[in-house]
Amino acid sequence: MKLTIPEHYNPVLSVRQTQEAIKYIRDTFQHEFGKEMNLLRISAPLFVEKRSGLNDDLNGIEEPVHFTMKDIGDERIEVVHSLAKWKRMALKKYGFQLHEGLYTNMNAIRKDEELDNLHSAYVDQWDWEKILTKEERTENVLKQHVRTIFKVIKHMEHEVWYKYPEAVNHLPDKIHFITTQELLDKYPTYTAKERENAITKELGCVFIMKIGDKLSNGEKHDGRAPDYDDWQLNGDILFWYEPLQCALEISSMGIRVDENSLVEQLRKEGKEERLQLPFHRAILEQRLPYTIGGGIGQSRLCMLLLKKAHIGEVQASIWPEDMIEECYKNNIQIL
């Protein structure tokens, strides 16, 4: 069990007040986010067919929860890890146009997650996707979208301060950009997680770019599936989180693979057999739009803005009994 207990922790809000604040944050953020990014809210699946190739492989080692259905035969159905690929198909299917996009409330089960203050087996996030031109697949366009998301989060800080001034967490005024290679050059003796913590503590909020490919030391900064984000045009938004003395990832996002980067990244991972799956064929044959997209953690955003010590204070999930007992001893109100 990995559990951090902040010294003299005070949750400030009662459980009921926290529930009210959670609803307010979620309702307000998705409205503002959709408006700023030109996104339409749509419905999304909880599970997909394995043969579709639409599920997110995360780091490639997590096994999805799966089952069969009485009326579908022996076809394996998988609970989604995320909707990274499905959203791109949906933009095409539903007739979205250039610079239009979608967002959805995505719920997932990640049964292999290592549980701690920030990680739960239950995942809730706003998954979003937006259509670009091929020429807009650039670092500048990526940064523009990152700054927009940061602006909406900062706006939410002010909204929460107005309603819950005693509980709000004050955020930095600027987001900084750094690549994984620049991060390694800056902290050559640190592990990847130590590098993230060091740069985020120094700058307050960072977007760490280019995640998935090997660095000059022959290692990856972190794993990324090879068939949705372009590893040269992606990244994570991290905030320094004082209560836990660590970096808190709020969003993973990026410009999606095109027909060339898809083949290159699958080859590097030895996963070329995926090129025969329907989703991958559609990219190769340029039948899907070029897009940018990502996920924004709903519970993590609530946790960040309300200065909570454990993600279990803002979502209902399952935790080890010893973790629950330790939390209650230290005034951490697990739902």
UniProtKB/TrEMBL annotation:
Gene Ontology MF terms in the entry: aspartate-ammonia ligase activity; ATP binding; catalytic activity, acting on a protein; transferase activity
PANTHER family: ASPARTATE--AMMONIA LIGASE
Protein's pathway: Amino-acid biosynthesis; L-asparagine biosynthesis; L-asparagine from L-aspartate (ammonia route): step 1/1
GO (cellular component) term, any one: cytosol
Keyword Cell inner membrane: no
Biological process terms in GO annotation: L-asparagine biosynthetic process
Record protein name field: Aspartate--ammonia ligase
Coiled coil: none
Protein origin, superkingdom: Bacteria
Residue span(s) of domain Aminoacyl-transfer RNA synthetases class-II family profile: 23-320
Pfam family, one: AsnA
Keyword set, alphabetical order: Amino-acid biosynthesis, Asparagine biosynthesis, ATP-binding, Cytoplasm, Ligase, Nucleotide-binding
EC number(s) on file: 6.3.1.1
Subcellular location: Cytoplasm
InterPro entries noted in UniProt: aa-tRNA-synth_II, aa-tRNA-synth_II/BPL/LPL, AsnA
Family membership: Belongs to the class-II aminoacyl-tRNA synthetase family. AsnA subfamily.
Catalytic activity, as annotated: L-aspartate + NH4(+) + ATP = L-asparagine + AMP + diphosphate + H(+)
